[in-house]
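notes to self, project folder thing:

trying the whole complex as one job this time. last attempt i did each chain seperately and stitching them together was a nightmare. two parts in total, labels are on each line so i dont mix them up again. if this works i'll redo the older ones the same way
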Amino acid sequence: MRAEIITIGDELLIGQVVDTNSAWMAERLNEYGIELYQITSVHDERTAIIKALDEAFGRVDIVLTTGGLGPTKDDITKQVLCDYFGTHLIESASVRAHIYDLYKDRPDVLNRLTATQWLVPETATILENRVGSAPLMVFNKESQLLASMPGVPYEMKIAMDEQILPYISRQLSAIRNQIIHRTLQVTGIPESSLAILLEDYENSMPQGLHLAYLPKDGIIRLRLSSYGELTEEEMTYWFAELKRLTADYLIADTDEPLEVIVGRMLKERHQTISTAESCTGGKLASLLNKHAGSSAFYYGSIISYDNSVKEHVLGVPAALIKAHGVVSEEVVRVMAESVRKILNTNYSIATSGIAGPTGGSEEKPVGTVWIAWATPEGTTAECFHLGKLREQITDRACMKALIGMIERIRG
Amino acid sequence: MRAEIITIGDELLIGQVVDTNSAWMAERLNEYGIELYQITSVHDERTAIIKALDEAFGRVDIVLTTGGLGPTKDDITKQVLCDYFGTHLIESASVRAHIYDLYKDRPDVLNRLTATQWLVPETATILENRVGSAPLMVFNKESQLLASMPGVPYEMKIAMDEQILPYISRQLSAIRNQIIHRTLQVTGIPESSLAILLEDYENSMPQGLHLAYLPKDGIIRLRLSSYGELTEEEMTYWFAELKRLTADYLIADTDEPLEVIVGRMLKERHQTISTAESCTGGKLASLLNKHAGSSAFYYGSIISYDNSVKEHVLGVPAALIKAHGVVSEEVVRVMAESVRKILNTNYSIATSGIAGPTGGSEEKPVGTVWIAWATPEGTTAECFHLGKLREQITDRACMKALIGMIERIRG
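result (full assembly):
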């Protein structure tokens, strides 16, 4: 079974908004055994929307649209869908009651534009949008269906999980493929060398098994995929082979973000972590506490962007900074040991580097990053050269910091 | 002049990767007066790629593809483009020399798979990819053109800025529309009420002028757009009117991120800022030092996720936490004043809230966030209720913190 997503909104096509919805939706669809065949982003423009609908219905069983459902003039999706499916808007008492309830503490929102939100296409099935005013609409077109939902990410997510996916599941209970993805993560080998290492493996893979290479921030994710052609057992065999062949470079045998792996290892061991960050500026801290449950192992951080903070809060001697520079093994080691002591944690990570665009020198060019890990067994530090662009350097530094932490917790 | 982007890669359609490239490319195209008409994401699959190419060439002048250019088996874009344009691969001495130079310090990369990277389509114009091994390819199809580049974001960005956009500019020097976008940001008014406030304005707008509402994290961005129909002067007039009508809710009359506005205000005043974060966990710090030049005003942060850090580093009395709870006006005020003093900055912001999914109570449900701002004039605090989802709560808390800071710096 195949689906397409049509995202509707000028903001995506002028670069004002990044489409994070589609990736989330793709993952969920795959869990339900539905393959996402294409994603199309179009303007809030009748012709473009209708063309996209026609093309999508020519290819797939399920069309999902996001966006264009607000009460303002620029949003035209509901009216275009009415025209496309040959129906018209009628008042829905239940949507009206829901909106009154939603805004019971905010009577200023119950104005005449909000009132347009309880007009719904007569032939559509209306599902409840628990957290917003735009109704979720499902249209049937012979054996195909279209579901329309808001583009606001958290409204879309609740709509998909609570209403649209269960609805699709009930309606389209035909045979679905079992889509299986298995991912592992490696580091320390160039992509082309990895492909040569895996050449015999790839040549011996059965029909229907796909291997993809996804390099990012110094890590290569290797993904095996099957769209209904291999069994769980066959996938387990091929994945085990892949693990065996890449063992020297393996960081993880799941697709989990590295900070989740660090968090799980620490929770299992009832241990804690803190960070002292200069160039990463809180990015590493944000990663470590991004996921629910992080308060069990993440205590806190001292972000010492300015040297005064390194000296007065982390106690890095001014003479040490003067002698070696802030981007040095000596300074980053003191930062790590100091934050571990001040925050009283089992582990700590410290970063100091030149994120650019200015501040580089011949000896220490932009992209130079020192990272130190303080553990119950002692402190170690490494120097990295992580590229030329500010965001790339700090993202890669976080990945290096997490890889180093995983290795050191494993011991 | 119109363009379309075709992103090629299974990783986008199974949700493993979020497409951040398209938004960036859209913005750049607009600056060059090129309208992005559609974005399409397809699998690494011959039929899907060819169908997308055909459809795109039926609609626009310029087709840009990203992805599928790696040396590994899953990447098929180069071969599919050869077939589509009826040409074949030949060896390029200049690409070969470039790749040898690129990997001169890493001979392990110069293996036989990397060698496939200097095979290029005979009829394509090859542009140099300064930072990677995949050549940039441009194909001409009568008056239309296609440019193919890697999907790795930093390679794509350098390719677009240094090679592809200048090339397009030279080749397609036909009359281009002047695309103008003007954006302002408001807060504290529901979207529907704002639309009612602007109803007469919208009804009087001339043909070719578009107004869009973009609500996110408690801020509504209002964008005026013209695709070649209005002059700069006309846009300036309509934008000034929009500013006048929304003056009571206006935060900014540009599309700049709020942290950039805070940074500029502080730099102009030679003032500095620090943060003490609990629920936002370093996200606010990361925003404040995200952009180049932030070391001029951002000193550092104390991320006090665990209560021990609030007590021992920020000096919040245990009795105060016991009496009022960590999510309270009393605690957040001490956090802000303390970090301002310890880090010796002019301003500081402190956050403490319940990001969930657990930890809420009847009195303080998930989403409750206290924010305090310490300034040379004194300390103030506010309580917010920011939704139910962890990421939404912390993102919105950062926006509230920045809005409050802008207001207080303005005085």
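what i see at first glance: The radius of gyration of chain B is 26 Å.
need to look closer tmrw
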